[in-house]
Amino acid sequence: MTDKRDSTDRETQAGMGMTPPANAEELAFALRQQIQKSELAPGEWLRESRLCAEFGIGRSIARRALRILADDGLVEIEENRGARVSATTVEEVFDLYEVRAALYGLAARFACLRGSDAAIRRMLADIDRLLEEAARGEPAEQIIAQSENIFSAMAACASPDAQKMIEAVRRKTRFHFSFAALALAAHDSGPYAHWREVRAALVARDADKASQGARDILYFMQGEVARIMLARGPRLRDEVPAPAKRRAAGRR
Fold it and tell me: 69, 72, 137, 229: which has the fewest Cβ within 10 Å?
């Protein structure tokens, strides 16, 4: 049964020159981006009535979108009250970066083993563009977006199952932590030495070094983000594993 508010809200949105989300997945995507960029703060309520008014959609779409976000752990649904943006602990962020490091290392490895020459050339050009943007002092958001594009190209060389795992982890990621960490690290080498290692490994088709370099990029970000979070508030538990610098066996 069609929600009676759908047509009315869409007309209102169209009159404002905005295109409302066509379905719950599109609305969830839009809200996910706002949460990941910290435009929606932890604890902020996302009630169906608010979403209907802001996006020009019906309650059924709003309800399904909130359930999608709840499945990703980005919101918590409370019966008869609505949904609110989930808070994130140091432990959760630390663990998420650990998983991302493993999966992105896998993607880099498969890029070396399976990527076509043309695909590798595109990755190299994108890495060069990222390094140039960093040297010019471009915004952290732009550099993070470029790095995610590169990892997407690498992930395309992995199996469908691995691609799904990488996408699932991305849906849970709060990228505003990465923006802050990269901005604070702008005065030093940041993760860019590791990006150069990945570039060299792609040229040589050295899967082990490419994988280690990709993991080191995420480990760098993991450590910086953990420091930011610990400086802003208390830890959930007494002990949080300190970010350790990983090195492949036998590597100096």
Answer: 137
Q: What are the tokens at 98? A: 């650990």
Question: DSSP assignment of 35-87, as one string?
Answer: HHTTSS-TT-EE-HHHHHHHHT--HHHHHHHHHHHHHTTSEEEETTTEEEEPP
What angle is formed at CA 102 by the lines to CA 101 and CA 107, rounded to 5 degrees? 95
Rounded distance, CA 84 to CA 76, Å? Answer: 5
CA-based torsion, 151, 211, 134, 120: positive or negative = negative
And the tokens for 31?
A: 């809200």
pLDDT tens column, 65-117: 999 999 888 899 988 788 999 887 888 888 989 999 999 999 999 999 999 99
Q: Are 155 and 170 in contact (CB under 8 A)?
A: no
Neighbours of 192 (CB within 10 A): 18
CA dist., res. 52 & res. 63, Å (int) = 10
Largest CA distance in the chain: 65
CA distance 206 to 192: 19
Query: What is the torsion angle, in degrees rounded to the nearest 10, for the CA atoms of residue 17, residue 30, residue 181 and residue 206?
Result: -120
